[in-house]
Amino acid sequence: MDLLHLRADFPILDQEVHGHPLVYFDNAASSQKPRQVIETLVRYYQQDNANVHRGLHELSMRATDAFEATRKKIARFIGAAREEEIIYTRGTTEGINLVAQVWAAQFLKPGDVILLTGMEHHSNLVPWQLAAKRSGAVLRHIPVQEDGTLDLVAAEPLFDEQVKVFACVHISNSLGTVNPVRELCAKARALGAMTLVDGAQAVGHIPVDVQAIGCDFYAFSGHKMCAPTGIGALYGRYELLEQMEPWQGGGEMITTVTLETSAYKAPPAKFEAGTPNIADVIGLGAAIDYLEAVGLENIQAHGMELTEYAYQRMSDLPGIRILGPQQPRASLIAFALACAHPHDLVEYANTYGLALRGGHHCTQPLMKRFKLPGTSRASFYFYNTRAEVDRMMDILHQAVKFFS
Ligand code: PMP
Prior knowledge:
This protein is 40% helix and 17% strand. By secondary structure, it is of the alpha/beta class. It has two domains: 3-30 and 296-403, Alpha-Beta Complex (Aspartate Aminotransferase, domain 1); 38-292, Type I PLP-dependent aspartate aminotransferase-like (Major domain) (Aspartate Aminotransferase, domain 2), CATH 3.40.640.10. The radius of gyration is 22 Å and the shape is globular. Bound molecules: 4'-deoxy-4'-aminopyridoxal-5'-phosphate (PMP).
């Protein structure tokens, strides 16, 4: 990959923070946006801005075409069978909540089992806890082993006839673990369970094919893959979307309305009430164009190479404990240093222009599992370089001396 050329697309990276060159290693929280995406937003607002679907005038038609073109791009990008299987959301959290509210309200009964894992982000835990409370269903969790992988032996007896929902993170934001979602979803579907995958850390980082995974739902966020914040998508198998009741009611999602009752449009419109986030949908389309031009295989290969390099170098740090398996691992390394609390370390790093993240990373049960108050996390994307990893290592070695 021509990294220097790509970096030029991210003007934000070219700045100093506290008198030092910025090293942005907080990509798992949110990625940076290339100027192609930023320019798409500006162009939309300067030339095409109008409400979608309703208008027969030129601007509305342009906005609608671009808005719907993104749906096609997403469907192709994640391997959906048809574009109607793509519902726009605010992000992963909203996608999971949609399913945990609508599907769960219709199909869960007291005593049914919702099977999750011990490494879920709060956004794939709390919505199911709420669904369990409302329906009388019970929660089960596949345990996490010391090496940060799922305990597939302990998982065996958890997959029984009572399981009606299986929801699992594709790539853990706190461990970097890449879960065998295809095998796990196959197990759950053989029992007749509905399956959902949290793809927040996967889409835009590794090639994703929802049909190959075989899940019923797959949720992701645009902002972690070069797109604006406030936009994401939920993939849902069309047959299930058809069976589901609408989520929010309002304009856009109906065919006819009387004072007493309404008839609803077919999916995805049924789940998209009100004026959508048009500009950011179009921005997400530009992000997909950009990522496809770079190449998902290139992005994945660069991430693996950089992470492997960082892993090797970090292993030498005195008092370090790195969480998660060495292989296969996504482009992030979460770690604890014996000498410093993650918040102190991250604040220290910030004074040298290094952006890390410290805390529980919205995975409190996982932190408890590893008996840690939190971790520090360095997460990479394709615009990061080995030289930046070297810079991080200088700062971390300096930090060990400072805190020891
Ligand atoms: N799941 C995982 C694995 C994540 O990393 C995140 C974001 N940190 C989310 C879900 C939630 O994504 P969002 O906040 O964009 O809805």
